[in-house]
Amino acid sequence: MRPFTVHATISAPREEIYDYVVDLAGREAYCDHYMKDYRLARANTVGEGAAARFMLAAPFGSQWAEISIAECDRPRRIAERSRFGRLGRNKAAVIYEFLAQSASTTRVELTVWTEPASPLDRLREKLGSRRWLRRQSSKSLERLRSLFEESAQEARPRTTIAGYEPLKAPRFGA
How many domains does the chain contain in total? Predict the structure, then answer.
């Protein structure tokens, strides 16, 4: 599929926004409207190698998806790889770019590419999943903006790992 880009302007420094987006534990706070049953795949949730699995509540049926951070260039860019659909055969790439417009204003651009693996997946994409994904991505950036601008004083929500004990973190490589 052709890539699409959505953007939002957030009144916060780009380093602060970058640090929140690169941590997959915070992803559910602004993407839970289309990512259901969100689970962290690794104990280290920040930076390259961090991964998560979730149910993508898409039109024409829900699908499991997995996302992992492939590249980080603080505070400019985050590149993620994703696999979704039956047996993870469909691939996707997601790129977040953080452009400083002033000292306290950042433009966040989200670019998404998908690569359907079968004719059925290509048909599903043509029938509306592309528009749906674009709409959900745009809504998630607006929710990210509201997290920073409307609830700046409150602690931002995070997903935790079941059974994870901070005192035993060295055992998990954190």
Answer: 1
